[in-house]
Specification:
The chain is built from 25 helices and 10 strands. The strands form 4 sheets. A 4-stranded mixed sheet has the order 6-7-8-9, with no helix packed on it. It is of the alpha/beta class. The two termini are 26 Å apart. 37% of the residues lie in helices and 7% in strands.
């Protein structure tokens, strides 16, 4: 749908073209307050129409603009770093129709003939959605106009107002969330259907936004708000602790690291899983299916990076990157004795398609990393099942890591805090617990180089908690925001690399000790199928012609005949602080010259 300017949103009613959506069936021109906002049912119907939750596509799409993934797609951040971005060609995000609908509800909900408690519940949901809406704008633009009421198309002052300061917007967001957490009911109440937000959804979003804002202000001196960072970190700590102390949630852990983490991403019904705060339900039998198998696994447009694979710890809690020669380990070697979360996120040596007797042999392709993503892939031949796996929108794991990170940033983290947060997640993954003393005594030099802004007595702990966030939430849409708030945009200038091959020759890819593929020089000729070399099992090898990028080859390696699989070339530039923000689209500035560009745009 074409994005409308704030002028048009103010002047036009919602489209009546779709009869499935409440807000479309009853546009504002038909929803007069006197006629519609009469009953609890009216309030419920309106707010159900505002439902907007993440789904399965997140696994494939959300991390493509980060160091977790290589991608052939034209994602915005890559285009910015490799092109000539301006307010003319960076045009997304300045859409306000959803805000109008939320503000219209908040202006009229008190008319309903029901109890104040019920009215406040639905108003809390509206403010929960408005807080999310506005903070997405803050993350993109920083300063934006604040509107708490529907715009009157004749109000020139409001239509032409300038950007309000970030501080005002975020304070308003936090006020909305304070109301939501106080008034939205818990799951189990009649007003909270399955798979819809409740009190704890609002609380985890409150913690998320407070953590984001606190760390963003701490690591972004261009805002001149560093002195206010601690207050947000304290709010993040307190909101996360409230969830932890509620007794409502727990880490899903049956003591089987080989399966426990994966259950979160391959279940047809997450409503009974006590780690899941909010889920999006899919059910093919009810015409509500979603299957991304064909695009999340293999060589559609994205593939996991070696940087991500290397960040997972060993089972004993030691760092993979501390092993001599670790970055020259081959595919089979690098998966041995690792954090179990790696094997639920990336296809590992010996992994099998459910219908196959033999292990899957990694399909290698030029401009891809060689690694294949498992998180989000449903390993089933049953199409109904594959289309009916729920998506965990909000997880208790986030509360635990928010709590730990906020305390570490505040400088008050203790071993007891780690044991009731980070170490619960490590235990589920079969990884030895994190020691606060050891982490701070010997910070990881790889992570320290990646995050040079981190300093102080808690440096090691902060770095390790950042590792935990990366591996726990890989491919779930957290990484980009994390890099932005930590002031780590320069990590995006490094082009993602893939698997390492020390030279031409034969390689075992399944871990059974028998070669599966053979790399030959780009100039060599691949023999006919019937004459290809066989391994000791009598299986013919798969041939790849190796060369540098843009050679006439089927596999690109950094050194041509050896090195890392190459996904792209070129130069990426990250302008600090400009690229942490986006410009107001030029077309909007023409409509309202009071919308001034900031941070170099």
């Amino acid at each position: 749908m074409k994005k409308l300017s704030i002028y048009l949103v103010a002047a036009l009613a919602v489209s009546t073209s779709c009869n499935k959506d409440f807000l479309n069936r009853y546009p504002e021109t038909a929803i007069t307050p006197e006629v519609f906002f009469k009953t609890q049912e009216d309030l419920a119907l309106y707010m159900n129409g505002m439902m907007d939750q993440r789904g399965m596509n997140i696994y494939r799409d959300a991390d493509q603009g980060t160091d977790n993934m290589a991608t052939t797609a034209a994602v915005e951040m890559k285009n910015i770093m490799t092109g000539t971005p301006t307010a003319v060609n960076i045009t997304g995000g300045w859409d306000w129709g959803r805000l109008r609908n939320l503000n219209y509800f908040l202006e009229n909900y008190e008319r309903a003939a029901t109890t104040q408690e019920i009215k406040d519940h639905y108003a809390g949901l509206a403010k929960y959605y408005r807080a999310i809406f506005y903070y997405e704008k803050v993350k993109r633009f920083s300063d934006v106009p604040w509107y708490s009421k529907p715009l009157d198309p004749s109000d020139a002052e409001q239509l032409n107002k300038p950007r309000d300061p970030r501080r005002l917007i975020v304070d308003s967001v936090m006020n909305d969330l304070a109301f939501a957490t106080a008034h939205v009911k818990e799951r189990g109440a009649a007003e909270v259907p399955s798979n819809t937000p409740d009190k704890w959804s609002a609380t985890i979003i409150q913690a998320r936004i407070a953590l984001h804002e606190g760390t963003f202000r701490k690591y972004h001196p261009e805002l001149s708000l560093q002195s206010t960072a601690a207050g947000f970190l304290e709010k993040a700590r307190d909101a996360a602790l409230q969830i932890m102390n509620s007794g409502t949630f727990q880490v899903y852990n049956t003591g089987v690291p080989a399966t426990d983490y994966g259950v979160l991403f391959n279940s047809q019904d997450l409503n009974g899983n006590k780690e899941v705060i909010l889920s999006t339900a899919y059910d093919q039998n009810k015409q509500m299916g979603n299957n991304i198998n064909g695009t999340v696994f293999g060589d559609y447009e994205c593939s996991p990076s070696r940087s991500l694979v290397s960040e997972y710890l060993m089972k004993d809690g030691t760092r993979f990157t501390d092993i001599p020669g670790s970055m020259q380990q081959t595919f089979v070697q690098e998966f041995q004795n690792r954090d179990a979360r790696l094997m639920h996120t990336v296809a590992y040596p010996g992994w099998k398609f459910v219908a196959d007797a033999a292990p899957y042999i990694q399909k290698l392709n030029k401009k891809f990393s060689g690694y294949h993503q498992l998180k989000g892939y449903v390993n089933s031949t049953d199409n109904i099942l594959a289309n009916s796996v729920d998506f965990p929108v909000l997880r208790y794991a986030e509360a635990l890591l928010t709590y730990a990170e906020a305390l570490a940033e505040l400088g008050t983290l203790t071993q007891a805090d780690l044991d009731k947060s980070v170490n619960l997640l490590r235990a589920r993954a079969g990884v030895a617990p994190m020691s606060l003393a050891a982490a701070n005594a010997g910070p990881d030099p790889v992570l320290a180089a990646a995050y040079p802004l981190v300093s102080g007595a808690m440096k090691g702990a902060i770095l390790e908690i950042r590792r935990e966030r990366r591996v726990e939430f890989a491919m779930e849409g957290f990484r980009f925001d994390d890099l932005m708030r930590w002031g780590a945009g320069n990590l995006l200038t490094k082009i993602p690399q893939g698997m390492y091959f020390p030279g031409l020759g034969k390689y075992d890819m399944t871990g059974d000790g028998h070669e599966d593929i053979i790399l030959i020089d780009k100039a060599a000729t691949v023999p006919p199928d019937g004459t290809k070399e066989k391994n000791a099992l009598g299986v013919r090898l798969i041939y790849y012609r190796a060369g540098t990028i843009n050679d006439d080859a089927t596999l690109y390696l950094s050194n041509g005949t050896s090195g890392y699989m190459v996904t792209e070339t070129g130069t990426r530039t990250f302008k600090d602080p400009q690229y942490y923000y986006r410009p107001v689209p030029h077309s909007q500035v023409l409509l309202n010259p009071n919308l001034k560009q900031i941070f170099g745009w």
